[in-house]
Amino acid sequence: MTAAGAEVRAIGVADGRVRVAIENVAPAVDGGRFAIKRVMGDAVVVEADCFTDGHDIVACQLLSRRAADAPWLATTMTPLGNDRWRASFVVDALGEWQYTVRAWVDPFLSWRHDFARRIEADDLRIAALSGAALIEQAAQRAAPAGEGELLHGWSNELAQAANDARGAAAGVLRRIGLDEARAAIAMRHPDLRHALTADAVYRVTVERERARCSAWYEFFPRSASGDVTRHGTFADCEAWLPYVQRMGFDVLYFPPIHPIGRARRKGRNNALDAAAGDVGSPWAVGAAEGGHDAILSDLGTLDDLHRLIRRAAEHGLELALDIALQCAPDHPWLNAHPAWFRKRADGSVQYAENPPKKYQDIYPLDFETEDWRAMWLALAGVFEYWAGHGVRIFRVDNPHTKAFAFWEWVIARLRASWPDAIFLCEAFTRPRVMHRLAKLGFSQSYTYFTWRNSKHELTQYFTELGRAPGREYFRPNAWPNTPDILPAALQFGGRPMFMARVALAATLCANFGIYGPAFELLEHAALREGGEEYLDSEKFELRAWDRERADSLAGFIALLNRLRRENPALQSDAGLRFLDIDNEQMIAYAKATADLTNIVVCVVNLDPHHVQSGWLTLDAAALGLAGEQSYQMADAISGAHFLWHGERNFVSLDPRRSPVHVMRMRRHLKREHDFDYFA
Amino acid sequence: MTAAGAEVRAIGVADGRVRVAIENVAPAVDGGRFAIKRVMGDAVVVEADCFTDGHDIVACQLLSRRAADAPWLATTMTPLGNDRWRASFVVDALGEWQYTVRAWVDPFLSWRHDFARRIEADDLRIAALSGAALIEQAAQRAAPAGEGELLHGWSNELAQAANDARGAAAGVLRRIGLDEARAAIAMRHPDLRHALTADAVYRVTVERERARCSAWYEFFPRSASGDVTRHGTFADCEAWLPYVQRMGFDVLYFPPIHPIGRARRKGRNNALDAAAGDVGSPWAVGAAEGGHDAILSDLGTLDDLHRLIRRAAEHGLELALDIALQCAPDHPWLNAHPAWFRKRADGSVQYAENPPKKYQDIYPLDFETEDWRAMWLALAGVFEYWAGHGVRIFRVDNPHTKAFAFWEWVIARLRASWPDAIFLCEAFTRPRVMHRLAKLGFSQSYTYFTWRNSKHELTQYFTELGRAPGREYFRPNAWPNTPDILPAALQFGGRPMFMARVALAATLCANFGIYGPAFELLEHAALREGGEEYLDSEKFELRAWDRERADSLAGFIALLNRLRRENPALQSDAGLRFLDIDNEQMIAYAKATADLTNIVVCVVNLDPHHVQSGWLTLDAAALGLAGEQSYQMADAISGAHFLWHGERNFVSLDPRRSPVHVMRMRRHLKREHDFDYFA
Hints:
2 copies of one chain form a homodimer. Chain A is an alpha/beta fold and 679 residues long.
């Protein structure tokens, strides 16, 4: 059984003495293939299974760094039991962070563990000598002065006591050997010769707070003049800023602002042919005067845009632009880069289609072109151009019809220059595709919320969104309407349904948005029965909106946004928990901060026509409520304060008054009988 | 926005035209780091999410091969909806197989999908020309003769019809373009230029059927003579073969058969010092006359072993040897390879210990030795030696105290020469370690079954074992007792508890074993109160067993093993489903084959002292039972046939008669009133 040299070399294992295993590092998306997402100041809590054979003691560290070229910072991990370990690090800079886990079988800790359990004097003496040798090794690893000297002294002291003509009492040996202060110093100089680092380096994309929590107001600047005969301008938009600010939004989002194609321009209500003077769809990007880096002259100039961005900021609003990477037939790229467009067999350019439907005013880019590299750079250039002009939030139109690899590349490229850039993914498509786009780097994603109406649908969908690993990379942004989608519920549910839907969006999701003023002015007429398109949509014509209308929901929306600002629980998607309520027409949920200092309970009557009532059950343990304690529920919508007792309480909502409660839980009541009434 | 050459090169994406994504390939263990396990003839069902941007049609293939150097076989995957795809391949040879998934955006399928939905004549004509071009490309990819020629003809036919002075009717174009037979041929020559193969190559370890289903009988050959004054021999063991065969076992497993250390030999009942004539523990391997490749002369010679292996095979029994990689103080390796053992500070060899416990008759190998390569080869040599002498089943003692990397390496090495080798992992240790060892390649693993007694414990534990990904690599082997473990339940539960425990093991687990004859002869005296060691254990002395004893459970065990042979449902761990029964002292479960042609329902009374009864609920949908249908349950234990109706039925078990039902479900009764009685 002797081993020939060749056989020894053929073992093919680099170092068989690495005895530790690392498994199940979390969080991780697809084994580290994609980054998790966090915002500035977050603690990234990392766990892993680290263990070895036998009974030796394992030590492990979380390694983290600010960038691929920054030095690793090591944080000692704490055992949670069952070989699971945890540590965290705080991300206090924008950009891409990295983390991984390192573990090793620690001879010093193993020795210390055993030494503490030894009983016989002879045993202790021999073990003390082993310990002295290990401590001396630690001393060698430390700098010669300072800690090295201290450890060297400790090693000598322990060895001398052990060798002291067998005179040292067991208690003395134990006291010296188990010295906690000096052990802590030795542990700062571990023996890493057989340490293992996890296979993958995991990544974190760190964005600013607004990536996690934002309230979007979508607005067509073309309608800013208040006069359907005069095209709105950026200057006209300035007059809207106080109104949008009063409603509490923080992102003002414009559909594309570029020249609009004239060839095959669509008319009002999506008519195939435009009439004279029809303004066309802003998503038909490009005309003779310019493409994605030009501004439609009717809206104003680049200087006007700069001024609007400044004025918006003064109103607490950040401008978001819509990037729609497609071309109208007269976009300059058609001539400059014919290779970027697919040709039909008759030599004509392939327009967008989904047979038998045709979108002849739109030419898609061909992501299988031979010239893909140049095209990618040009498309990146579109974002770069507007970022260079101060835009930091991009709503991306139809990203699901462009190559995945492009998005991963372009978002990483843009973040390298503008780590504060935020990307909202407009993809109402297949679930895997929506998730993939989020993995590729989009900060936020449109969701199916728009079509989730029943209690079952909403509960199921938001429970799914809250699950790992999706919650690590997919930040939902809930929209009750968009210029493309007037859902059936809003067509027929009346004012209570508008209230319910916007309240659900604003409280279920830390990111939400509305397309206004169509939303707050209760616009609900559809172009066609059974369809979801708006009648007289701004997509194809100018509209004049009366923002002072008495029935406007602007005040209600302002209240919702105020509640979002006042309650940290509503500023994160973590901490959502659906509550049992014994009425199928009512949905209830709590949102809570991790420390339970802020708990908001929302109840929504999904029936816009009738009063609905039910018994709601709180999860007392999860919300930190002790048994039958009383607590106050302050409903910001009605202004009422309810005194609740224990887990089960009665709620009733009349949709004609308000279909929602948004109640903050207030505990530690001093004089609970002050609140002994029920709305 | 023009791209400079340097910028173009800096894109860092190999080919941006690869538009498809592959995610969530399953089964997979740790992203493909470890192999899944299957047995000969299994179909490996593989699923993956494959999708692309936009509306183009994706095609995907499962790629599989018999070994790393074999050619890949491509199997078309079928869509399951929601972008999930599935295909399978059959593993019909032992060894390591590989698989992965390849996907691409298919221009021909995308064209065909659109073409079928086109309506306008002009549209159809232009699209037909595009299709003809795609078909011609497929023709070029095919061999020029045969399919290539056929496709070329098809392309011409379609192009001519499209160009035919615009005369061809839409129906004609559609008929030619959508020709199914020729499309199937074109699809055999797909355009793979932009295909993507999943990042990982996934592995399957294919073993023989016995790796999945086996019944082990552990036996000390030292006690084979029937006379405590005469050491048993391999020749004596031959007389036991018919007995073990009658009980229905298929693996006869011996504790280590090597010379036993004399230094520090343990006496009877684990006494620190052996008396003269004490035989010592077989796990103290090695003495002056030899180590792991020698046979204890009291047992016989190598020739005797060969003869026993042959005779066992004639009785349907395969011999398993116990490999305990540790050394008695007088093992030859102590002198030959002192570097393989750790030294204490006083220069003595480090014995096994877990302070304050000491095992001074055992020297562990030091897996952190500088000489680890030579040691690994020597340890591999132990297995190789016995494999060379016809042993193919190895029960490995305490693998959890040896380095993980060693197991992965040695098992792969041994399988390369002996793909029919089976390895049973004896590790009663921490869950992560047990799972890791299974991932590293052990065919079967000891479990916590030995200590899982209550309904809750058993249900929870076996449910966990059945979950992905554990079920892909961890094959449990359930033991009610071992020479080391006489669990409390057997000490105090009497005969009904022995029956219940072995029935649970034999029916919950496709692999199970007992340590006999201690088990079937109801040995239940412990060395110490509160301990789990047998009194007068064969580990330290010879025993004489009376295998003809009237109270032996041999007949009951034979019945269980017969049922395992007769019911395919009991031969696999898949298809286990716990059933609701409204009595905490009763546990019930069904095991079913995938096609539901064999369904076994087991009910066990866990209370050894009292009759227990309850209403059992079957999951009608899962077991393919229609509504209130009647069916027969044939209990092989009592011989009774019950007529059951619908989902809920009554069961009652008297532990003095039998604490278990093992009932085969028989449907499609012709004359159901024949069975209208109850036990």
